[in-house]
Design a protein that fits this description.
The protein is 25% helix and 28% strand. The protein is built from 6 helices and 13 strands. It has helices at residues 67-77, 123-129, 134-141, 174-182, 188-191, 199-212, and strands at residues 3-11, 14-15, 25-26, 30-32, 37-40, 43-44, 62-66, 90-93, 105-108, 111-118, 146-152, 154-156, 161-166. The strands form 3 sheets. Strands 1-8-7-11-10-9-13 form a 7-stranded mixed barrel. The chain is globular. The N and C termini lie far apart (44 Å).
């Protein structure tokens, strides 16, 4: 079964004390939009990002989260979690986001995307959802969603198929990367097997491995 986009979501400006930007503004509140949206190498056209020191850029141009994982959290937290409710640009359906391989390429609409890294939960995320211990619980659940590079700019829209057109043989997944950096340090050597992983994370793995030896 080919997966698809359940929705495409753009961030609106939210001003709050919990916002992770010095200006007190965040773009974590993303709302579904109608019609096609342009994915660019530097981000999603029309999306607001409050803290560009931590969000956005070529390795984090697009964030995808699975509708199925959001539904699990809605039941767990007793919240109404709509599409975009985890700060994702792309809400997917029938796509194994946690099992996606670093460097895997997705053809979506007229765009070509590449899996890069897992999302790390933060205080802004907890404040937005109103659940103070959400980062800890999100880490324990280990379904973090995936950031993607835009290899070919193009337009995407709700209902577009998500086709995996290339998958590196090293097999290092989003889930493994997340667990290696947060829960299971014994997985750190696996990160060095994935050349498509951002160099900052590969260097972090090297430092932690050097500290353990």
């Amino acid at each position: 079964m080919t997966g698809r986009l359940a929705s495409v979501n753009l961030g609106i400006v939210t001003e709050a004390r919990w916002a992770g930007d010095a200006s007190g503004r965040s773009g974590i509140d993303k709302r579904p939009v109608d019609g096609p949206v342009l994915l660019r190498t530097d981000g999603v056209a029309g999306d607001f990002i409050g803290n560009r020191a931590r969000h956005g850029g070529p390795d984090q141009a697009v964030y995808a989260y699975a509708e199925e994982d959001a539904a699990w959290w809605a039941a767990e937290l007793g919240l109404d979690v709509r599409a975009g409710g985890f700060g994702e640009n792309l809400t997917t359906y029938a796509v194994d986001v946690t099992g996606a391989v670093i460097g895997e390429q997705w053809a979506v609409g007229s765009a070509l995307l590449q899996i890069t890294k897992a999302r790390t939960p933060c205080a802004t995320f907890a404040g937005f959802r109103g659940v103070p211990d959400l980062p800890r619980r999100f880490t324990a659940r280990a379904t973090p969603g995936a950031y993607l590079r835009v290899l070919r700019e193009g337009e995407v829209g709700a209902g577009d198929p998500v086709e995996v057109v290339d998958r590196p043989a090293h097999g290092v997944t989003i889930g493994e990367v997340f667990r290696a950096l947060s829960l299971e340090p014994e997985l750190l050597p696996r990160l060095l097997d994935a050349p498509e992983l951002p160099e900052s994370l590969r260097e972090k793995a090297r430092r932690r491995l050097a500290g353990r030896s």
